[in-house]
Amino acid sequence: NQVGITDARKAKYDFSDPYIASKAVLIVRGDNTDIKSFADLKGKKAAQSLTSNFGKLAETNGAELVGTDGFDQSIQLLLTGRADATINDSLSFLDFKKQKPDANVKIAAQEENADYSGVIVRKGDPELVAAINQALADIKADGTYQKIADTYFGQDVSK
Asked: pTM for the full model?
């Protein structure tokens, strides 16, 4: 799992430069033409973990929540027509589509703001942070980062 860079965490820990970005995405069946934005969730069924931020986002946009245990169950409810949409993490969706490229799902919309993750480091070790940042810069410069991103997500996930 990634460790999100937040102000609360930065108060306790140091972080490397961000190495991955994640956005909330609205996922629908591939043949769905009715839902094109988060606002289009009004009156629709959204398969969501009831306690997640994604569930709150769906509810804020007027969706009727269908409770799930997580991403896989949400996608199954969507594919079987028991839900109209799900909101989840862009990285989870990209990984799923990389594993199952023929799955009949697509991204209808995504939030503009991204959450960034970095390597978490104990406070007060600037040499370690600098070494990690240099390693990240090196793998980006030599193409290794992009190869890894392509392998697991099918695209650049740093922005």
From this structure: 0.86
